């Protein structure tokens, strides 16, 4: 699995998932980059991503970008 720096995401067109780390509890969670609804941490409920109508705003640290296949 290829790892990319945080700055690389946004260059791909569609179907990208990112692994983020919750700033509150350090839970790692995979979030769809174009999430249509807000994504909350499964552990503590902290908002990890907010939908914007296009690409979601990722509210936490992206540790990995997972390319769609
Ligand atoms: Zn959390």
What's the topology here?
Layout: E1 17-21, E2 28-32, E3 39-40, E4 47-50, E5 57-58, E6 61-66
Antiparallel strand pairs: 1-2, 1-6, 3-4, 4-5
Give your account of this protein's structure:
By secondary structure, the chain is mostly beta strands. It has one domain: N-terminal domain of TfIIb (Single Sheet). The chain is built from no helices and six strands. It has strands at 17-21, 28-32, 39-40, 47-50, 57-58, 61-66. Strands 2-1-6 form a three-stranded antiparallel beta sheet, with no helix packed on it. The protein has a three-stranded antiparallel beta sheet with strand order 3-4-5, with no helix packed on it. The mean pLDDT is 83. Zinc ion (ZN) binds next to loops.
Low-pLDDT stretches: none
**What is the β-strand count?**
6
Q: Ends: how far apart?
A: 12 Å
| Sheet with most strands | 3 strands, antiparallel
CATH class bucket? Mainly Beta
Keywords:
binds zinc ion; mainly beta; N-terminal domain of TfIIb; single chain; 69 residues; three-stranded antiparallel sheet; 6 strands
Describe what is shown at a glance:
Helices cover 0% and strands 35% of the residues.
């Amino acid at each position: 699995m290829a790892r990319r720096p945080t700055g690389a995401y946004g260059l791909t067109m569609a179907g990208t998932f990112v692994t983020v780390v919750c700033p509150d509890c350090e839970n790692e969670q995979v979030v769809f980059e174009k999430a249509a609804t807000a994504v909350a941490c499964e552990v503590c409920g902290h908002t990890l991503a907010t939908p914007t109508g296009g690409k979601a705003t990722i509210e936490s640290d992206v540790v990995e970008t997972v390319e769609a296949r």
